[in-house]
């Protein structure tokens, strides 16, 4: 599409109904305000969220829908009060473009938890307009929700960081999953899984990928650099890793059992859920004791035996690998996003974090 003026009408691709088909469409961007940044969009990543709302899978799509929330480009205009950006800067815009700015979450730079968050597309902005995303020529956003991309980082490969990247980076930092020498498990090898493996290797972790498909082995080991690959349905492979992992990032969207993975964590290990299965079923024993109830005994030099009566059956436990945590996480705040991007300035050349397709 040909470039359009940076304010006013803008060329875009929009879905007009739940079939999700995209066609050329004209939208109107607001005039740049004092705290706004306008950028010419060079690339926009494709996310499953684009499918969800162009096809009205959540029954809340407001057509026409212009999708796209992994946006990168170049600054073409800044408002009079903008201090952090200059014309020509390489920048990105992620999954939200506004928030209340006054609540506890916003004041802690956790804007993604703000009750008044405005998502980048198919949301209602403070002026009542429906937000339109990155499948377009340009976008105008408040400075707070625009992020500087390091010089030299390929814009085409930076786009997925604004959604998939920050989604796995946030729990990894929150739970100290950036400590060299520790062990990380990654469940699933889609877009989120790719990023988790890349971050894990950059942080100096020993990374094990779990998948139901043997066809993902070469991708995990040879392409992404994982240290180990395990077929999650293979009981022997899973048993061999019991109580061996410090962290697990679960990126799987489909329904799957949780207890087998929780058993792979060391005592006080953390499993962070970033995928979205339809339900979560966890036996409390997996979190408290480190195993689900069954008639067997762990051998451990660290703790005494404990007896649990279950339906008239006495089960012996040795409590040595419990106190595990199952945590949820989604996206990240503005400070976290910029910290993630700044991280590349330090690690550039050490281990490129690109989503590999």
UniProtKB/TrEMBL annotation:
Its EC number is 1.1.1.195. It is an enzyme of class 1 (oxidoreductase). Pathway: Aromatic compound metabolism; phenylpropanoid biosynthesis. GO terms for biological process: lignin biosynthetic process. Homodimer. It holds the Pfam family ADH_N. Belongs to the zinc-containing alcohol dehydrogenase family. Keywords: Lignin biosynthesis, Metal-binding, NADP, Oxidoreductase, Zinc. Residues 17-337 form the Enoyl reductase (ER) domain. It catalyses: (E)-sinapyl alcohol + NADP(+) = (E)-sinapaldehyde + NADPH + H(+); (E)-caffeyl alcohol + NADP(+) = (E)-caffeyl aldehyde + NADPH + H(+); (E)-cinnamyl alcohol + NADP(+) = (E)-cinnamaldehyde + NADPH + H(+); (E)-4-coumaroyl alcohol + NADP(+) = (E)-4-coumaraldehyde + NADPH + H(+). InterPro entries: ADH-like_C, ADH-like_N, ADH_Zn_CS, CAD-like, D-isomer_DH_CS1, ER, GroES-like_sf, NAD(P)-bd_dom_sf. Its cofactor is Zn(2+). This is cinnamyl-alcohol dehydrogenase. One of its GO terms (molecular function) is metal ion binding.
